[in-house]
Amino acid sequence: MSKSKPVFSSSIGKKLIMSLTGIFLCLFLVVHLVGNLQLFKDDAGLAFNKYAYFMTHFTPIKVVSYLLYASVIVHVIYAITLSMKNKAARPIGYAKYDGQANSKWNSRNMGILGTVILVFLATHMSNFWWKFHNDEVPYIEYRTDLATGQTTARELQASEFHDYQETVENNVQIVKARDLYKQVDFAFKNVALVALYVIAMAALAFHLIHGFQSAFQTLGFNHRRYIGIVRAIGVWVFGVLIPIGFAIMPLFFFFK
User: Fold this and answer.
1) Membrane-spanning regions, if any (predicted)?
2) What is the DSSP letter of 97?
3) pLDDT in tens, 9-37
């Protein structure tokens, strides 16, 4: 322990941990986006509300969630620590240093991009995670005729809801759930919130384009044979597809 402690408290150790937590967060974004695609189903939110219940009650997923929260906290703390250390090491810039000529815009502004993303995360968690876990969302009942596949939905009063239920009666599937879908629909009628999400996804795109490749470089994956693949995944998957996928969701509900 005495030998490993200086490693992880050093700048190299902190960069290593930031890389590992960053890659873990990238993988989470992929899974989260796939799950949130349920929002686009034309079923009054049935698929999405089932997904929300599964993600908050399946034990392995809950364990991963706690790891996710820890990763976000560690990633942010180490990012701030390294940034402050770098500034302290060189409080006065070189006289002839031209940042624009020596580095890309997103690499020079990772702190600003990270701050925008952090504000977004706090807003996102308060609007959805907090309200869902503290019973501040509506309740809904779905009835699906298993013979025809037709689904009807009605809002439940608080007295009619006790917990998530999924039963079958007379060939009709009945699902009672917290209606997180309606909370999403309500929240994204707010133009300021939609604008924040779109801006945050733009910040996320620039953050990931630099951060994804940088993480693999820190881990030693910088060989010419595969650095092109890493760069392509960082740009097109994490810098384009995923941010656009998340940005489309608030826009979809706002203009729906």
Assistant:
1) 63-82, 110-130, 191-212, 233-255
2) -
3) 677 888 899 899 999 999 999 999 999 99
Q: Are 110 and 78 in contact (CB under 8 A)?
A: no
- Contacts of residue 107, Cβ cutoff 8 Å, sequence gap at least 6: 210, 214
Q: What is the DSSP letter of 39?
A: G
Sheet holding 151-156, edge to edge: 151-156, 139-145, 172-178, 165-169
User: Please, are residues 176 and 141 in contact by the beta-carbon 8 Å criterion?
Assistant: yes
Phi, psi for residue 144 in degrees, rounded to 5: -115, 120
| Residue among 116, 113, 107, 101 nearest 86 (CA) | 107
E runs forming strands in the chain: 139-145, 151-156, 165-169, 172-178
Measure Cα distances from 173 to 25, 48, 78, 161, 168 in Å. Answer: 36, 16, 49, 17, 4
Compute the distance between CA of residue 189 and CA of residue 130 in angstroms, rounded to an integer: 19
In this prediction the pTM is: 0.86
